[in-house]
Sequence to fold (390 residues):
Amino acid sequence: MAGRIGETILNFVRVLRRAGLPVGPAHALAAIEAAAAVGPERRDDLYWALHATLVRKREEKPIFDQAFHLFWRNPRLLERMMGLLLPNLQLEGTGTPPPDLAARLAEAFSNQAPREAKAEPEQREEISATLSASAQEELRQRDFDNMSLTELAAAKAALARLRLSFPPTVSRRWQRHPWGKRFDGRATLRAAARSGGEFALPKFVRRRERPTPIVVLCDISGSMDRYARILLHFVHGLTQDHDRVQSFVFGTRLTNITRALQDRDVDQAVDRAARAVVDWSGGTRIGDALLRFNKDWARRVLGRGAIVLLITDGLERDDPALLGREAARLQRSCRRLIWLNPLLRYEGFAPRALGIQALLPHADEMRPVHSLDSLAALAEALTKPIPARR
Fold:
């Protein structure tokens, strides 16, 4: 009996791992020990025993809750749903699954390997027929937080094809140009002297243009975890397209990941960046992170009209006055401060949090970054000339 319970719990852990929860062999062993300690007699005891060993974050609880109530409803559930999509499944005596079942959980059950029965060819054709041309449009509008693992992979591939073209920065220095707007008398006289005083064509100059420096400050706290992982792919594409891009992430401390994102392979670059960070999905100290950036990095990376992309939801747990002071200092040091906030996806968004109220007056522009459409709109807006700051 103990062996059967352990095997069943292992299958349940595999479902959670396919659904995106970071559970491994150590978690599975702890879950088996906890289930053996409380016993399988009471459903509530088993639920909380597995919850204590397999759930570590608040956002993982809905996936675990739905998976538990669906998995333990029928011991042979995995054998009955081989090759089928979960929303189309009819369980004996239980009805259809709940309509609000998470997409990642549905995908996790549908990816189980067949054991007894195999799906008929007609069923496979019916499943593939559900993928229509409107899926791409729906994917572009879907929130990153609600995407399944397959949809996230498609979104990352779309981000790899996204290109940004920032307008160049006009320098105060001049350079020779045949169609320049300013006449260069000295160059014209030197050309005439080289030709022995003969007639020489007039020379012209224009302002020198150089790439605009870009600085990215990305929040990787617990509330931004899901968005930060997909937005790092966006930052990686930005790094590959432009030479002067500096990337930083912050949760409870500030970390420079510029060198890690210079790897040509996006997966290796994101993995290197994740290994360099020690406070991923932790607390939020935006004010302290901006303080450290202003003191240690601002003079090195904010020169020559840099544009700062601040990616955060603005949910600060420390003193909002510190956040306001450092945000004002950051705005004065850069050419333009653009705040990218995923909370703008809500129609009824209002700046009620103290951190948002402290940060909002110092942002030159605020845009949503919760979907592929929002990132495409951001890319289009950044290609236009930068307006003068009031």
Observations:
- The first strand starts at residue 169 and ends at 176.
- The beta strands are 169-176, 182-184, 203-210, 214-219, 245-250, 254-256, 307-311, 336-340, 365-367.
- The two ends are 73 Å apart (CA to CA).
- The CA atoms of residues 142 and 371 lie 6 Å apart.
